[in-house]
Design goal:
heterodimer, A: about 160 residues, alpha/beta, 5-stranded mixed beta sheet, about 30% helix, about 25% strand, B: about 150 residues, 4 helices, 5 strands
Chain lengths: ~160, ~150
């Protein structure tokens, strides 16, 4: 004789969302608190210097004549590392006492004009005082690149090389 | 999900808010922050404040072989799990080791671009010292890193 099974009431399954929401809020607060937008970084290409660390810096002549299509930008810095004076010497330009970046930009534009060519193939060698701070060096390099000079070399200042 | 209360008794109702859309939104926000979070990369030191340059060019998909050297404001080269490098000889030695351990092996010195991340207050003498040490180690390509200036 079949026994009739007693019907059970349907079970209401509820997913506990509250702990999950708590955890999500904690994760959210962690990421919001640690979020720091990173500045976009980029590179400025330079040529390797002719100097070599294995040799002494006196190996280079103190008054080396610039090569054809090479311009030498001499940068003097004061004790605080700021630029005090700049001079630009090359086949078509000789300019002493450049004191502002605006003057430097004008001179860099002048270089290419006499030969009626662009800045391609012309190289700029920056001879800077070793006290110069890096951000000023980048400012100068930035101006050179802006004027179209892709070939930029770095050197220490002639008299510092000797001393 | 239960929506609203199931009345039991005489007119007594329990108001249960619907949490699902809230959870969805929070999880989406969590995902967003996880994706944009800057996990500290081994080679990029956050102790360095870079100078700003408008002509700095970001890395492209073609630039695959590069390595970083971080130089702090005191002119020390920061290296992971090691004491900061000070002398040109120690920098050269480190770079030679890095080239030897690189996947490109012999070709590393010719093909790997060394990117110097120097602090904006570092002195030119320290940058030059590092550059000369890199050259002595035999590397051929070099770039200086800066923060790209935002165009106004």
């Amino acid at each position: 004789m079949a026994r009739k099974r007693k019907e059970e009431p349907p079970v209401d399954i509820t997913l506990p969302i509250t702990p999950m929401l708590d955890m999500s809020f904690q994760l959210l607060s962690f990421f919001i608190l640690t979020f720091k937008p990173m500045p976009t970084e980029g590179q400025l290409a330079i040529n390797l210097p002719r100097l070599d660390a294995s040799k002494t810096q006196q190996d280079l002549p103190l008054h080396e004549e610039p090569k054809q299509d090479e311009y030498r930008l001499t940068v003097h810095a004061g004790g605080g590392g700021e630029i005090t004076n700049m001079s630009l010497v090359g086949p078509t330009v000789t300019k002493e006492n450049i004191r502002t970046f605006q003057e430097l930009e004008e001179q860099l534009k002048l270089i290419a004009k006499p030969a009626g060519r662009g800045a391609e193939g012309v190289s700029i060698t920056i001879e800077a005082s070793q006290d110069l701070i890096y951000s000023r060096l980048i400012d100068i390099m930035d101006r050179c690149k802006k004027a179209g000079y892709e070939s930029v070399n770095l050197m220490p200042l002639g008299k510092e090389r000797a001393g | 999900m239960s929506h609203g209360g199931t009345g039991s008794g005489h007119g007594q109702q329990s108001a249960e808010p619907n949490l699902t859309p809230l959870l969805d939104m929070v999880l989406q926000l969590v995902m967003f922050f996880m994706l944009v979070a800057n996990f500290i990369m081994d080679e990029l030191s956050d102790k360095i404040t870079l100078p700003v340059a408008s002509q700095a060019k970001p890395l492209t998909a073609k630039d695959v072989n590069f390595m970083y050297l971080n130089v702090n404001k005191r002119g020390e080269v920061l290296v992971l799990h090691q004491e900061p490098l000070l002398s040109p000889e120690s920098i050269t030695f480190y770079m030679r080791q890095a080239a030897a351990n690189h996947v490109l092996k012999e070709r590393a010195k010719d093909e790997v671009t060394v990117i110097i991340r120097a602090d904006r207050e570092a002195k030119y003498r320290d940058i030059l010292k590092t550059i000369l040490a890199i050259k002595t180690a035999g590397f051929k390509k070099l770039q200086l890193r800066a923060e790209i200036a935002q165009k106004e």
